[in-house]
Amino acid sequence: MAIRDERYLKTVLDRAVSQVQITDIHTHTYPADFGKLLLWGIDELLTYHYLAAETLRWKDIPYDAYWAMTKREQADLIWQTLFIDNTPYSESCRGVLTVLEKLGLDTAKRDLESYRRYFASMKVEDYIDKVFETAGVKELVMTNDPFDDLERPVWENGCKLDPRFKAALRVDPLLNTWSEAGKRLREWGYEVEADITGKTVEEVRRFLRDQIDLMGALYLAVSLPPTFRYPEDSDRGRLIENCILPVCLEKGIPFAMMIGVKKLVNPELRLAGDAVGKSDIDTVINLCAAYPRNKFMVTLLARENQHELCIAARKFRNLMIFGCWWYLNNPSLIEEMTRMRLELLGSSFIPQHSDARVLDQLIYKWTHSRKIIGEVLFDKYSDLLATGWLPEASEIDRDVEKLFSGNFWTFLQRELP
C-alpha cells in the first residue's frame, strides 16, 4: 500500500524499526560457555570503563586506590558519584538507566541494592535469552582472540556454540605486536621466524586458516592506531599483504579494520585510558584499490574522518562502512553520521553495531540507536513524499531490514540466518 501522508508514514516506520530483528555485527559479548569472558549484571554495567573514567574526573583519589577496590566497591563509588551526587545525563549513565527501565525495574527509587537482588535472582542462560528478546537482537558477532589465555581453551575444548553468537577472528596481537605473537605461534607448533618471508608466511597463513575453521569466523578484524598507513614497510604491512588478505580472499571473508585508537594515553586509567586520533583515508582507498577482489569492512574512530570515509565508499563497492564506533556512539553523532551516510550512500551501509562489552548493553545501545535511526529515516521518507514519490509499506520494511541486518549478510554473500 502506498504511503501518502506523514502520519501514516510514521506509523509504518515506527512499526518497522521497533520490530526488526537485528544482526549486531561487532560486540565483545559471549555465551555462558565462555565463563569469565561473559560480563553481565548491574555491577558490570556500572564499572564499565566509560563510567570509571567519568567518575575519576570527579573523585580526586589515586588511580591505584580505585583499582584496588573490589568490583562491588567500585560500583558503589560510581553509583554514588554519577547517579546520586550528579545528574546522570551522560550517554553511559543514561544507558544504565535504560537497561533497568527496559527490564521493568523502578529507576525512580534509585535503589542499587534492589537492582542487585534482581540480577542475583537470574540464571545466566535465562538472562541471555531475556537480553536478546528485550534488545530485539537475533544474533551477534563476538570478538574472538586466539591469543587470549581465557578464550583459547574454550575453542580447543570443542565448545558447542550458542547459534546466536557468531565468531570473528581478532588479529590485533599478530599485526600490532608481531615479535610477541610469533613466540606464541612457535609454542603452538607453527614454524615461524622473525622475518615475514617464505616459511613464516605459509605458517601464519596456516594459523589463520586453522582459527577461521575452528571458530567458523565470519570475518577477520583488527583495531589499528591512527598512524597506520598502507603501503607500510613494516611487519604489519607484510603480514597484511602476504597473509591476511590472501587468506581472507581464499576463505571468502572480509577484513574488518577499526582505525583511530590511541592506546593508553593515560595508562593509569587502564582500559579507560585510550583516546582518539584522526586517520589517513588514503590508507583505506589504497587497500580497496590494490585488492579489488578482497572485501573490507571499515569503521573510523574520529568524527573528522566520516565524510571522507563516505566518499571512499562511493568509489569502492568492496568497502562496507559500519557503525558509530566507541566515542562516536553518542546520540548527536549517531544522528549526524546516519544522516550523512543516507544522503551519500543511500542504504548501502551498516548504520550501527553495539560494541557491547557487557551483555546488558545490547539493550540500551539498540534502544537508543533504533530511535535515532528511525527519526533520520522519517525525515528522508518525508523528503520523498514532498517530491510526489509514494513509498510502499513493504519497501520500508525491506529498507529497514537491510540496514539492521541484511546488508551485512549480503556483503558476506551469505543467506540470512
Quick check: average pLDDT? 97
The major pleated sheet works out as: 5 strands, parallel
Share of residues in strands? 5-15%
- Give the SSE string: HEHHHHHHHEHEEHHHEHEEEHEHEHHH
**DSSP, total strands:** 10
Intertermini distance: 28 Å
CATH architectural name: Alpha-Beta Barrel
How are the strands ordered across the major sheet? Answer: 4-5-6-9-10
Count of alpha/pi helices = 18
Globally, the shape reads globular
Rg: 22 Å
Question: What low-confidence regions span 5 or more consecutive residues with pLDDT below 50?
Answer: none
Q: What would you give as the CATH superfamily?
A: Metal-dependent hydrolases
What is the total domain count? Answer: 1
Account of the protein in words:
This protein has 417 residues and is α/β, with parallel strands linked by helices. The protein has one domain: Alpha-Beta Barrel (TIM Barrel). It contains 18 helices and 10 strands. It has helices at 6-19, 42-46, 49-58, 63-68, 71-84, 91-102, 112-120, 124-135, 152-156, 172-176, 178-187, 198-215, 235-251, 281-290, 306-315, 331-345, 361-386, 393-411; strands at 22-24, 137-141, 165-166, 169-170, 220-224, 255-259, 261-262, 275-276, 296-300, 319-321. It has a 5-stranded parallel beta sheet with strand order 4-5-6-9-10. A 3-stranded parallel beta sheet has the order 1-2-3. The chain has a two-stranded antiparallel ribbon with strand order 7-8. β9, α15 and β10 form a beta-alpha-beta unit. The longest helix has 26 residues, at 361-386. The two termini are 28 Å apart.
